[in-house]
Amino acid sequence: MTNYVKHFRELKVYQKQREISREVFRLSRQFPAEEKFSLTDQIRRSSRSVGAQIAEAWGKRRYPKHFTSKLTDADGEQLETQHWLIEAKDCGYLAEEDFQRLTGWCEELGRMLGAMIQKADSFAGSQDRLREESIPYFTE
Asked: Are 91 and 29 in contact (CB under 8 A)?
């Protein structure tokens, strides 16, 4: 059975991003109060921005260069999130197990975004839906 994507919320890459941002939020609630307007704010903002960039990319999918630009921005935000995860671990706010899990998820997200960027032309056109299975993510 073929699965068609009609909305960005149905994209596997968007769903993975949501999982990451929820976990970042949950774990960052334990950061010290003095980090509220620095590390906590930055890591939450960057992890959430990935989803916003994916949503914008979806809206611009008929224009491969715009689509690619937004997905590239999303990839940059996931890399920024990885940086803040490193900072949180180095400060002792994040356990090694949580760090490894989240960075692994971010790396998977990066591979998914990279696959979409490579196949940007397949998202273009006037169709209202997309067969996502035709876009391999190579996440393993």
From this structure: no
Angle among Cα 134, 128, 123 to the nearest 5 degrees reads 40
Cβ atoms of 13 and 140 closer than 8 Å: no
Sequence letter at residue 107: E
Alpha helices in the chain (DSSP H): 12-28, 39-59, 64-90, 96-118
- Closest C-alpha among 15, 14, 19, 111 to residue 58: 14
As a whole number of angstroms, the distance between CA 105 and CA 93 comes to 19
CATH class of 7-121: mainly alpha
Query: pLDDT tens, 65-108?
Result: 999 999 999 999 999 999 999 999 999 999 999 999 999 999 99
Residue 41 near residue 55, CB atoms below 8 Å: no
- Angle of CA points 91, 96, 102, to nearest 5°: 100
Q: How far apart are the first and last CA of the chain?
A: 23
Maximum Cα–Cα distance for the chain, whole Å? 51
pTM of the model: 0.85
∠ CA 122-104-80, nearest 5°, is 75
